[in-house]
Amino acid sequence: MQVQQLKPKIFGRMLSLFMEEDISEINRELPFAALLFTILAASGVTLYESWKKLRGVEHLPTFQKEAKEVVRQVEVLGYDPLTVMQKRAEKTKSKVYREFLLGYVSAVRSGGNIINYLRSKLRSIFEIQSAAAIRSIERLGTLVEAYAVMLIVTLCSYILFIIFSSTSIFEPMRAAGTPGISTEVVCLLIFVLTPLISVIFMIVAHMERKSNLVGLKKPYQVAAITTVGAAVFLALAYTTPQLKWLTAPQVAPLTITACLLAISIPAAGVYTEIARINNAAENGMPSFLRDVTEARKTGLSPEKSIIHATKRSGYGKFSEVLILIRSQMEWGVPLRKVFGNIKRKIQNWPVLVNFLILVETIKTGGGSSLALEILTEYSEKQKDVETNKKALLRPYVILAFIWSVLIALTTTMVALTVYALTSLSLPGSAPMPFFALQEQMNLFSLGILLQCWLSGFFVGKVNEGTFAAGFKYSAMLVLTAHVSLALSQSLMGGMLGLAPKA
Description:
By secondary structure, the protein is mostly helical. It has 3 domains: 2-112, no CATH class; 140-208 and 396-502, no CATH class; 214-393, no CATH class. The chain has helices spanning 2-42, 47-54, 61-75, 81-91, 95-110, 114-166, 171-175, 183-208, 218-239, 252-297, 302-310, 318-330, 335-342, 349-365, 369-393, 395-422, 434-464, 470-496. It is elongated and about 90 Å long. It starts with a helix and ends in a 6-residue tail after the last helix.
């Protein structure tokens, strides 16, 4: 009976989660949809005709579905477009979208200036988006701080297990029946529980931070291939007698580091190349649109204005795309086909949407200077929002390197210091064999390397919005952790006079 009562509650919670996701997607796409409506209205196109245009915009999938529903109700069910928009406003859970639709309906019915309303509402939407971006950064900052606390708790657990396993002070407690801490429990903490917590943090970061890169598959494909190769190599190292030396306590951390780097570095190289051209496009797009707009104001045709803007230098990798645009337009290739070719080079979502709006503005409304001015103005605002977001998130990368060094140094220092103390003739303390210390250090070193490698993907998602960026951070963090472990073991071992004993 209780199970039957719980089912509606669980279903309701799942439905609310899906609705929240829809709201976030609507709010994310709304500035671009409103921009398209405003520009087409400035070109003399009605909002209903803009809805019909929106049905073919695959880069705004949520509004594409919305547009199909609006057109269906008008053309199939015979409703008036304003009535349909009012009904959609009453149905949506997004407050910003609801106000946009209701305001438009009211402006039309009262005989107001539609273009002025749309420009005013568009300005308000971008201000709301900017404020939402700042709030999102604050939430991400809190998430990073929580992740750092989790790592500190993990470090404290490592220290506790080192003290338990390195001394016999707690033998009387074990003799009294208090359960001890076995190697299996330590392995469960290091290789299962801690990585699982990191994965949970990554999922939360994924829900909070959206990537501007669409269709990003190549880095993951490269990583899948190298992961299979690294897994095969490790399997051979642990099963083949000739390669057993690679799994010895002194060598195993270096082996694992090399495998993790082999997984990350090729994928990081692929992602870096993709990110270079897309970041250059994101930074250069407002300037390109500004050049097109200013050329259009002088009386040049829209096509000649675009060709003129592509001749400007200083765009970096984005210049390759502009050269392609210029060559195709000079050969008379239609704008929509040019845009299709651009999608093979650019994967940045705001850049693609701005290009699409530019094409629709020219093909539908003739590319008036007013429409282009609106597009340029809000493209510059988009760039400012993204630039501020990246600048505010960048310090968290430094924090990742700090915790990687800290967890490596502290664990090594505690393990070697406890071993040195237990080697003395202290009451209730028994010396620990050096090979046992090496086995213990090997176990914790592997756990630290794995944790730092996973941390790279969390940092990549927070800082750049995509897990593919995590490949370069994971490579740097695992290398930092390995160097910290090697240096701390060497220096502490020399200071404490520790050396293998026959």
